[in-house]
Amino acid sequence: MNDKMQAPTDFLDQATINLLSEFCIVDHWSANLANAMLKIGHRARTLHGLPEDRTAFGLLELVRCYDDSIHDKIIKLFEHAAFESRPFNFSAAIKQPSDDHRIVHCFGAYRSLEDQSDGEELYGVFLFSRGTYGHL
User: What is the DSSP string of 61-84?
Assistant: First the structure.
C-alpha cells in the first residue's frame, strides 16, 4: 500500500463504529462462485424479509427483495464483479409490507480462496438504514 492511502483500520476507530451504529445496521454476505449461492448474515436476512431458517440463497431471491426497476442493474453488477474481479456497490430500497421502504447499501468485492476447494467468491457488507421511509 502506498504512503498516501490509509488502511481502513487507520480511520475506523471505536468512536466511528459507535457513530455508524446509530444510523445503520451492518451485516455480511458472501457468494460462492462455484455454486452461485449467497450466504447472508442473520440481520441481513431478517431485514430483506428472507426466510430466517436458511442461510443460502440464489441471487434472484435476493434481487426480488428490491424495487423491480433495479433488478437488472444489480444482476449485472454481480456478473461484472465475478468475471472482471472488480469491486462494486449499489443502493436500493427494500420493499416493506407497509408500503414503506428501507434503504440498503451493498458493498462487495472479488477474492480468490487459495486455501479452499471452492476457489473464488464475492463478499461484502450490507448497511441498512435504521428507519423506514414512506417516500423516496
Answer: HHHTTB-GGGHHHHHHHHHHHHHH
118 phi and psi angles, rounded to 5 deg: -70, -25
10-69 pLDDT per residue, tens: 566 788 878 888 888 999 999 998 888 999 999 999 999 999 999 899 999 999 999 889
Q: What span, in angstroms and rounded, lies between the C-alpha atoms of 82 and 89? A: 13
**Architecture of the domain delimited by 24-129:** 2-Layer Sandwich (3.30)
User: Do 94 and 117 touch, CB atoms closer than 8 A?
Assistant: no
Domain residue extents for the chain: 24-129
Ramachandran angles phi, psi of 25, nearest 5°:
-110, 130
∠23-88-104 over CA atoms, to 5°? 30
- The closest alpha carbon to 124, from 86, 72, 69, belongs to 86
